[in-house]
Specification:
Length: 368
C-alpha cells in the first residue's frame, strides 16, 4: 500500500494505511457487520502484518454503515453449519478466540470505535483495545443466553472484572447498555458524540504521525471534554448497583431469580421476566463461567470458553435459540431442560470438561 491511502478489500474487511495509522473497517452493514470466519481471518492477517510494520503506529477499527460496530458472530451461519456438520463451526471459535487474544496483547495502540451496536463478537474485538470509544448511538450487550449460548470471546473474563456483581447481571440477562453504563462498567474508556467521532476520524486521516503517543494525544484532544460530559454517574447501572450487587450475589441461578423476584419496583419484575425467558441451562453455565473467570488469566479463560463452546453444540442447546430468534423467528425456543429446577449440577460441570488433552488443545499455544 502507498502512504497516500490506497485501499485493499479482503472479503468484507477493508484496510487502509494513512499518515502512520492503519484503519480497519468491517464492511458488512447489511448484517450489522457480523463476523464470518473469512472476516476473522482477514482481521487477523491485517493486525499481524501491521504489528510488524514500523511505519504503522496505531490501528483504528470501525464498522461501516452507521448502525453497528459489530453485532457479533454470524449466527445464521452457525445454524447452517451445525446442521451440515461442518467442521468449520468448531474452527470458527478457535480462530475467533485467538484473534481476541491477539487484540488483548497487541503491542501497538488498537483503538475501537464502538459506534452503534456492539454485541457478542463485537465485544470480543473491542474489549482488548487500548482505547474503547463509545458514542450516543452505542448499544452494548452480551446477549448470548437469549440464544442458548454463553458470553464467550473472553466475555467471562471481562465481565468478571466489572464492578460488584455487574458481570453476573450483564452476562445472565444480556441487558443492553449505553455509553454512560459502559463507562461505569469499565467496558469503555472514553465518549464522543457520533458526529464528533466522525470529525475526529477525519482529523486523524488528515494528519501524519510519527509515534503511538502522538496518535493517542491527538484523539485525547477530542475525547477529554466530551467524556467529562458523559459521566458514569449518569448511568442507570450506577443507580441500580446496590440492587444488582444484592440480588446477583446468590450462589445459584434459582437463588438469584428468587432475590430478583422479591426486589421492589419495576426493575425486579423486568429482570425476573428476562431471566425466565433465557435458557435455564445456559444461565447456570454462564454463572459458573463468570465465577470461575474471576480467578483466571485471560489465556486460560479463553481455553475454557473453547471447551464450553465445543459442548454447547453437543450437549447444550445446540442451535435451538438461534433457530427461534434468527431463523424461524417464532421467538419460542424449546429449551432443554425447560425449567431451572431440572438443571443438574453435573450437567453444568460437564461443560467445563475439556475434550482435548492439555498439550493438544487448539489454543494450547496461547501465553506460552
Amino acid at each position: 500500500m502507498t502512504e497516500s491511502g490506497s485501499k485493499q478489500a479482503v472479503a468484507e474487511v477493508m484496510t487502509e494505511e494513512r499518515g502512520g495509522v492503519a484503519y480497519l473497517t468491517l464492511n458488512r452493514p447489511q448484517a450489522l457487520n457480523a463476523l464470518s470466519l473469512e472476516m476473522i481471518r482477514a482481521i487477523t492477517d491485517a493486525l499481524t502484518r501491521w504489528e510488524a510494520d514500523p511505519a504503522v503506529h496505531a490501528v483504528v477499527v470501525a464498522g461501516a454503515g452507521g448502525k453497528a460496530f459489530c453485532a457479533g458472530g454470524d449466527i445464521r451461519w452457525f445454524h447452517k453449519a451445525w446442521h451440515a456438520q461442518d467442521p468449520l463451526l468448531d474452527q470458527f471459535f478457535v480462530e475467533e478466540y485467538a484473534l481476541n487474544r491477539l487484540i488483548h496483547r497487541y503491542t501497538k495502540p488498537y483503538i475501537a470505535l464502538m459506534d452503534g451496536v456492539v454485541m457478542g463478537g463485537g465485544m470480543g474485538i473491542s474489549q482488548g483495545a487500548r482505547l474503547r470509544i463509545v458514542t450516543d448511538r452505542t448499544k452494548m450487550a452480551m446477549p448470548e443466553t437469549n440464544i442458548g449460548l454463553f458470553p464467550d470471546v473472553g466475555g467471562g473474563w471481562f465481565l468478571a472484572r466489572t464492578p460488584g456483581r455487574l458481570g453476573e447481571y450483564l452476562g445472565l440477562t444480556g441487558t443492553v447498555i449505553h455509553a454512560a453504563d459502559a463507562l461505569y462498567a469499565r467496558l469503555a474508556d472514553v465518549y464522543l458524540p457520533a458526529n464528533v467521532l466522525a470529525e475526529m476520524v477525519a482529523a486523524l486521516q488528515a494528519a501524519r504521525f510519527t509515534s503511538p503517543e502522538s496518535v493517542l494525544a491527538h484523539i485525547a484532544r477530542f475525547t477529554d471534554q466530551h467524556t467529562a460530559a458523559c459521566v458514569p454517574a449518569d448511568s442507570s447501572l450506577a443507580r441500580l448497583s446496590d440492587q444488582i450487587d444484592a440480588t446477583f450475589a446468590g450462589a445459584t441461578v434459582p437463588a438469584i431469580l428468587a432475590a430478583v423476584s422479591d426486589a421492589e419496583g419495576d426493575w425486579g419484575a423486568q429482570t425476573a421476566a428476562m431471566l425466565r425467558s433465557r435458557s435455564p441451562l445456559m444461565l447456570c453455565v454462564t454463572l459458573e463461567q463468570i465465577r470461575r473467570a474471576r480467578s483466571m488469566a485471560l489465556d486460560d479463560e479463553l481455553r475454557m470458553e473453547l471447551d464450553m463452546m465445543y459442548h454447547v453444540f453437543r450437549i447444550g442447546e445446540k442451535v435451538e435459540g438461534i433457530r427461534a430468534l434468527a431463523v424461524d423467528k417464532d421467538h419460542q425456543p424449546k429449551w432443554q431442560p425447560a425449567r431451572l429446577d431440572d438443571v443438574s449440577a453435573a450437567r453444568v460441570r460437564s461443560f467445563f470438561d475439556s475434550p482435548w488433552r492439555r498439550e493438544e488443545h487448539p489454543l494450547a499455544s496461547l501465553g506460552r
